[in-house]
Amino acid sequence: MRDRKKLKDTKLGTWLKDKAPQVLDTVGELLPDQGALGVVKRLIDLDPNMTAQEKMEFEKMLLDYEANAQNNVTERWKADMMSDSWLSKNIRPIMLCYLVFVFTIFVAMDSADKVLFNIKSAYIDTFSILMTTAFTAYFAGRSYEKVKLNKR
User: Fold this and answer.
1) CB atoms within 10 A of CB 21
2) Predicted confidence (pLDDT) per residue in 87-124, tens digit
């Protein structure tokens, strides 16, 4: 199950409360997996009151948090692969194929001079996010798993 704790309720939040309460006040209600960690990292990097040691400590905690999140994804993928359901085992490659297929159709339709094709920018943005997320999760996630397995 996905951890739905707000940033202020995590180990990072506890650290921020002690070391950078103004940052916690700004982003404490956000969910870490929805872009909050990048914002926090930027705020910590720009904070003139933070020592180099505190910034390094934060970086280590951030890396630990991200490694833990990646491990959770890996465990979910393992559970899917152990399932008896064909769909659970194949949904990710199917989605990648679908996204590439739809993208190819969009490009072909947009390139054709005789086809009046206009897609709203909101759909383009959404599709871009879906493709980026799917490809990053599938290919970067698989690379992470392989590196992790090779270290054992």
Assistant:
1) 11
2) 888 888 899 999 999 999 988 888 887 777 778 888 88
